[in-house]
Amino acid sequence: MANQGEQIQGGREWSPLVAFGGKRRKHFFSAQDCVGLALLFLVLLWIIKKASALPQYEWQWPLLGEFLVHRNPKGELEAGLLLQGLFTTLRVGFWSFLLAVILGSLLGFCFAGRRGLHALSYRFLVNIIRNTPPLVLLFCVYFFAGNFLPMAELEGVYRNLPLPVQELATAIYAPVGQLDRMTAAVLALGIYQCAYMAEIFRAGIESVDRGQWDASLALGFSRAQSLRHVILPQSFRLILPPMTGQAISSFKDSALASLISLPDLTFQSLEIMAVSRMTFEVWVTCGILYMVLGAVCALAGRYLEKSFTF
């Protein structure tokens, strides 16, 4: 109680999260860390040994570099097929996650705290989306929504844009000829992820004590003002970790877009494997690139957690 009182007097309110997170270990690596790293190292050695002993397989790692970076006829360095696919994966993951955050936050905010018939439409929508395989949803959007979206007219407008604007749109979204597939992938994955994001936002908002709502309403705040100034700052630290996981899933699920011939990282890996017959080299590199994307998202999430923890 004395320590708790000191923290309150110091201007920082005590909480279990702060108390647990504030404990520093004496050593950088614990015994569990050392055991885990040793086991991981042994597994990697075993995989390398088995891979090197594969019969009738010639490893061609140097040839893979041409598919990462190569020189064009002018002698300039250009991104190879793998890096081009990685850029497409980044665009699909980013736009689908952004769409999921927008739709999920709106659903979570609107239906947080609602029960019974007031939440019936929300429960129906979320359960339908969550229980539909993302691949089925992708095919439904690609084959059916194309009849309702003016993709041909959009491509015509796209082609008539000034060249600098067209290059910018190509860099941040998709080139001409891929608009329909990119739009279908972003819509399908964004809608699929928004169901999970809605539950994350709803649970985070409902985790804040009811007294905080009552206090903000007593001060004359509207529901929107209460969310913005009182509830969200407290719930964001609980929303952020699962939201980071959904960001990682957005980039991993983008591999499904290869099934509608969108040249993402998985699609380009399939093409390279068919041409070069480098099966293991291509898929090991593909897996490493996906892991790097996930690691970057995880590090960004950890940085935000530390920044917003109070």
Overview of the molecule:
The radius of gyration is 24 Å and the shape is globular. A hairpin with a 5-residue loop joins strand 1 (69-71) and strand 2 (77-79). The protein has helices at residues 2-9, 16-21, 31-52, 61-64, 81-111, 120-130, 134-144, 151-159, 163-172, 179-206, 210-218, 223-253, 265-276, 279-308; strands at 69-71, 77-79. Residues 1-10 have low confidence and may be disordered. It has a two-stranded antiparallel ribbon. It has 310 residues and is mainly α.
Quantity of strands, as a count:
2
* Major beta sheet, strand line-up: 1-2
Strand content range: under 5%
Taking the alpha carbons of the first and last residues, their distance comes to 19 Å
User: What is the SS-derived class?
Assistant: mainly alpha
Low-pLDDT runs: 1-10
**What form results from the Cα inertia axes?**
globular
- Which sequence of SSEs, written as H and E, runs from N to C? HHHHEEHHHHHHHHHH
Using brief descriptors, characterize the structure shown.
14 helices, mainly alpha, 72% helix, two-stranded antiparallel ribbon, 310 residues
Topology:
Elements: H1 2-9, H2 16-21, H3 31-52, H4 61-64, E1 69-71, E2 77-79, H5 81-111, H6 120-130, H7 134-144, H8 151-159, H9 163-172, H10 179-206, H11 210-218, H12 223-253, H13 265-276, H14 279-308
Antiparallel strand pairs: 1-2
Helix pairs in contact: 5-10, 5-12, 5-13, 6-10, 7-10, 10-12, 11-12, 12-14, 13-14
